[in-house]
Amino acid sequence: MNTLAILLLTFILSVTGLFVFIWSLRKHLFDDNPAAANVIFSEGEIGKVEEPAATEAQRNALQSAVDATHTPTVDPARDARMNIELAERVQADRSTAYATFVFLACAVAWLIFASTAGLISSIKLHEPDFLTQYAWLTFGRLRTLHLNAVAYGWAPMAAFGIAIWTLPRLLKTPLMGGRFALLGAMLWNAALIAGLGSIAAGFNDGLEWLEIPWQIDILFVIGGALIGLPLVFTLQNRKVGHLYVSIWYMGAALFWFPILFLVGNIPGVHFGVEQATMNWWFGHNVLGLFYTPIALASVYYFLPKIIGRPIQSYNLSLLGFWALAFFYGQVGGHHLIGGPVPGWLITLSIVQSVMMVVPVLAFSVNQHMTMRHHFKTLIYSPTLRFIVLGGMMYTLSSVQGSLEALRSVNTVTHFTHFTVAHAHLGLYGFFSLVMFGAIYFVMPRVMSWEWPYPKLIALHFWLVVVGFGIYFVGLSIGGWLQGVAMLDASRPFMESVRLTIPYLESRSVGGALMTLGHLVFAAHFFAMALRYGPRRVGPALFHKPAALLAAMAEA
Length: 555
Ligand code: HEM
Ligand code: HEM
Known about the structure:
Elements: H1 3-26, H2 34-37, H3 56-67, H4 76-126, H5 139-171, H6 178-200, H7 214-236, H8 245-265, H9 272-307, H10 314-328, H11 343-355, H12 357-371, H13 377-380, H14 382-404, H15 407-413, H16 417-447, H17 454-487, H18 493-498, H19 501-529, H20 547-554
The site of one protoporphyrin IX containing FE (HEM) has 23 residues, from helix 4, helix 5, helix 16 and helix 19.
């Protein structure tokens, strides 16, 4: 088939999809669908907030804010049934506690390592003589250590930890075969330590995002498979008929990632231009089909749970899932705009990049409509602040990405710091903020222990939000000016380098604040793990620690 026909077909399919979307909206197919959206609540639980990271006072205020939006009903018989269901949830939480803790503790440790490497790399870009005495401390290696510690340490450890905790809850079934996950975590982390060691020593595969030598990748594959096994066993033995949308996103991400990783790392198959194309097929799909769906699944679960309100439109959430699955797979080519790659492939990736507005809008509209009349809850819920802001950053990074994929814009932004700002908007502003929120929610349940110093959660939030604001704004402006200067043949190249220095300095200031925020987070996390501070009543703070739950906690 000729290339024009392929492009035309893709375009027609995409536009048809858009029209089906608009038609469905007009037919009210996306309106409230309580039956499916309610499955994450026990009977009578809607209208009751669940916010383990909040203090007693914050939780009461949160509940009052939610009560103001609907009329609470009293039904003792129903509440008794609800307590039995909550007890089942406690069982599911118990079954995952150990494995979740191991994954999240590793995630936090890698976050600190990655942030330090990122900060030093950043300083080196405006202070080139800083720490140059050892080869492993040079920019090329340290930057690669930063990226790999983020991509294979912080992000997947947090993602696996949250998935392992959430799926048994959603499937109303205790986790089965948790030991496999623990063994998998050990192998994965051993592989990462070996991989980072080899990068620091100067050995790597030479492809961005795939630097770790393929021999070590074999360990990741075995480790990843072991981590996936308990989730498959639990899914097979589930006690629910309907699979909530978060299960779709998480399940698909955990299915897509091994395929990407295997294809991306098989040695001796791809060469030259084909290799570059495969490199970016992997590069963007690991972002779009692994980290992104895990974070979206988390928003779709934690946001409604915290405010005690089902998502506005369940059908819209499913449309977002299918549109993401349909469009994201082909966008990788937008990293090679201007490269020696067939034009049709690039155009295809641009069309798909722009069509990504469909799943992105589906998510944003749904998040906004669910939060409508509930924005006041942000004042009282520390978790919700991270999650809602993270969700907004998804919209922002994706809309920015769709524009950045256009040839006219990419001509300016490619090879500049603008791309790096966008990268952090997506993987930090969106993914990492959502993961912070999810970890704040999950940990009190995992440890049956309260966050010891609630003010540190607020401090963490403001440090990273202000730090990231400085990082993103400075680097976006600097990157754009750099791109414009590079395109101007009358200006010497060095001018495009020199003009970025103040913006690079501002990135170091922002990055230092973010790193400080991560240190606060890590100190708080490990203080909780060491059981500092007060112990709460009942199995970690369900909205009303009923006598039944308290008795179970004692048992
Ligand atoms: C509709 C959605 C999105 C589109 C169309 C998009 C598009 C783009 C484009 C055009 C680039 C620059 C390529 C270049 O000039 O080299 C880019 C880079 C990047 N994007 Fe996105 N983006 C989207 C969403 C996201 C999200 C949600 C994340 C994070 C979860 C993300 C993370 C990144 C990263 C990390 C890079 C830098 C990759 C590298 O050079 O190492 N993007 N994206
Ligand atoms: C969880 C937190 C973080 C995540 C997820 C993250 C993610 C990333 C990603 C995906 C890239 C590759 C970007 C590209 O090639 O376009 C990158 C590069 C980089 N990051 Fe981060 N980062 C984080 C924190 C930080 C911090 C705190 C700093 C401190 C300033 C920092 C500084 C850098 C630098 C200097 C680069 C290299 C940019 C270049 O090559 O020009 N990052 N980071």
